Structures are given as structure tokens and as C-alpha cells.
Amino acid sequence: MILVTGGAGYIGSHICLELLERNHEVVVIDNLYNSHPESLLRVQELTGKTLTFVEGDLLDQDLIRKVFEDYGITAVIHLAGLKAVGESVSMPLTYYHNNITGTLMLCEVMKEFGVKQLIFSSSATVYGTPDSLPLTESASVGAANPYGRTKLMLEEILQDVYVSDEAWSISVLRYFNPIGSHSSGRIGEDPAGIPNNLMPYITKVAVGHFPDLKVFGDDYPTVDGTGVRDYIHVVDLARGHVHALEKTAGETGIETYNLGTGEGYSVLQLVQAFEKASGRKVPYEIQDRRPGDIAECFADPAKAHLKLGWQAEKTIDDMCVDSWNWRKQNPEGYTGEKNASKQEL
Ligand code: WQD
């Protein structure tokens, strides 16, 4: 039985779908702070398979223990955590407590039950401002905000856990910029409030929620002056987790992998790709740079290909088509389904 913490979220729900399609049995713990139980109902509809959902928080260690007792967990994919860069600057204690303590609670219970296979959700944000590109896993790290520092600290904590007991099998997955949705358009990114990230904001402009996109700076040393990122389709990202889980089952060790495509796209290039894919105009207005942003970031994903047999396959057009398909079908996201589906689950 695979435990997916944060499994009701944007990335988590896509991972649960891929796990079920690969005939894994899945248990989800999620506190629903930034996710919707409706996503898991739809994952079950799409796959024709069932999973177990437990509403709860990793800070409740007795709850984690009960899940391990009740469901015979054999491995953990750990996604649960706060992840808004800007918010982390204003609420560092909340981020450190939630992300660090929550992970420690989880790992202690894993140790108690002798469950030592962990797939950990990290982020390219640990690289800070890259010294050179593309980024390999051996590039220097240095997070520039509390959120990124929680990920970096957790990577170091997991390294120490492995050194203390080499029976652990730990895969640290550094995500680049996940966008897109399952091709059905039934599950997707549904951030609460005003989206921080680029693609959910673009889709909300395209569907008429916002009048235009604010482009944070066009004076970076990049192809067109706007920020360049390595956008990866969320389904490719989800499949990277399944590859890591299946490839490292029965093995020991700790390895870090970049999950990106290896290609960078600027803000304006993504807007252009989205307009082509959706047939919708996305008006935009150039504004000042966003504090903390870097100019350019994209991965060298060769190690994941070599060691996990995984590489991203979907194109930027797929990402735009699928992002638009989700938003078109769900202009208000999962809202209105939250209470109903919790009872059903
Ligand atoms: C992408 C580009 C912006 C919004 C963050 C976190 C990272 C990960 C992914 C958690 C940048 C520009 C954005 C907008 C814009 N999250 N932009 N207008 O900042 O690369 O990464 O999200 O793991 O940790 O740091 O992603 O989508 O916010 O920004 O011009 O309204 O789009 O300046 O160049 P980012 P993003």
C-alpha cells in the first residue's frame, strides 16, 4: 500500500491517478488546506479504481501512526507541505513548523513501522540563482526564501537519516515548473485565491476572470527580457514519481533527481504558445520584476533518464492545450464540491 501525503492536491491527484493505473494500492493523507477531495473522487472515476482518503495533518502523529497500523503502508510519496514562496517570507515559522516538523513526524512513524522507502517532493527552488545552466543535480544550492530553505533543510535531514540507517531508500525529486492537467480536463490546478504561478493566472485571463496578465519584468538577460523557466507537464512529473517508486523498490540508497524537460520558455513564449493552443487572446501588461525572482532556470534531466528510465514526453503545446481544457471545463475549479465529496469519500 502506497501512502501519498498531500495526495488530493494538484500534483498529488495526478500521481494518485498514475499509481492506480499501474495497479498500486493507494492511501492519501491530506489536510485539504490547499486541495479538494473532489479531485480524488474524479481520479477514481477516471481510473475505475478506488483509493482510501484520510483527512488529516502530518502534525498529528497519532493519525499517521493509525494510518500505518490500519493500511499496511509499504512506501511513502511525500508531497504535503506549504509551497508559496511569497507567503513563506511573511510566515516563516508556519512554513518551518508545517514543512519540517510534519516531515519529521512522518519519518519517525516510518522508522517505527520499518517502512524505509520514501519519494520526497523537493523543488528546483533549492538552486537559488543558478551559477550556470542547464542545472545538474550537482549544481550548487542556496535557497533564497523560507519555502526553499525548508526543502533544502529537508534534503539534508533525509541525507542524515540515510547515513544513520542505510536500509533506507530515499529519492529526492526536484520539480521544475509543473503545468498542464490530465487530458480529460477533470483534474487540474485550482489554487485558492489569486494564483501566484504563471499558468493558472494565464488560464484565468483566458476564461475572463482577470482582464490581463501582469508580466513581472521584461529587462532580464533572457531571450526576450522575460523570465525563463523549465515547464514540465504534470502528467510527466507524476510518471517520474511512479518510475522512482518502482525503480527503487527493494533497493537502498539516497539519490536526487531533476524532474524537468531540459528546455526553457520565457513568459512571453508561454503566452504565445497558450494563445495558439487555446485560440484565446491573453492581453498582458509589463510590470516591475517580482522580488525574489531569478532570470532563467532549466534542468539537465539526464540523470533521471539514465537511472530511473524516465524522461518528459509532453510538449509545451500539450501543456497549454491541457491547461486550457481543465480551465474551460472548470472555470470555478472544484468549488462547490468540497463538502459533498468529503462525505462521499
Ligand atoms: C514563472 C515565471 C515570473 C506569475 C515557483 C516557486 C517554485 C515552484 C513553482 C513550488 C516567472 C512570471 C508569474 C505572473 C509573471 N513552486 N510570472 N506573472 O516563480 O518559477 O516558481 O512556482 O515548488 O518553488 O518558486 O513560478 O509560475 O510563479 O513564475 O510574469 O502573474 O512567470 O516572474 O518568470 P516560479 P511562477
In short:
It is built from twelve helices and 13 strands. With 345 residues, it is an alpha/beta fold. Strands 3-2-1-4-5-6-11 form a seven-stranded parallel β-sheet, with helices on both faces. A two-stranded parallel ribbon has the order 7-10.
Mean pLDDT across the residues is 96
Percent helix, as a range, is 40-55%
Q: State the distance separating the first and last CA atoms.
A: 18 Å
Written as H for each helix and E for each strand, in order along the chain, the element string is EHEHEHEHHEHEEHEEEHEEHEHHH
Ligand inventory reads: UDP-4-deoxy-4-formamido-beta-L-arabinopyranose
The main pleated sheet reads as:
7 strands, parallel
User: What characteristic shape results from the CA principal axes?
Assistant: globular
- Strand order in the largest sheet: 3-2-1-4-5-6-11
Cα radius of gyration in angstroms: 19 Å
Catalytic activity: UDP-alpha-D-glucose = UDP-alpha-D-galactose
Subunit structure: Homodimer.
GO molecular function, one term: UDP-glucose 4-epimerase activity
Protein name: UDP-glucose 4-epimerase
Describe how the helices and strands are arranged.
Elements: E1 2-5, H1 10-21, E2 26-30, H2 37-47, E3 52-55, H3 61-71, E4 75-78, H4 85-90, H5 92-112, E5 117-123, H6 146-164, E6 169-175, E7 177-179, H7 198-206, E8 213-216, E9 228-229, E10 231-233, H8 234-248, E11 253-259, E12 265-266, H9 267-278, E13 284-287, H10 302-308, H11 316-329, H12 338-344
Parallel strand pairs: 1-2, 1-4, 2-3, 4-5, 5-6, 6-11, 7-10, 8-13
Antiparallel strand pairs: 9-12
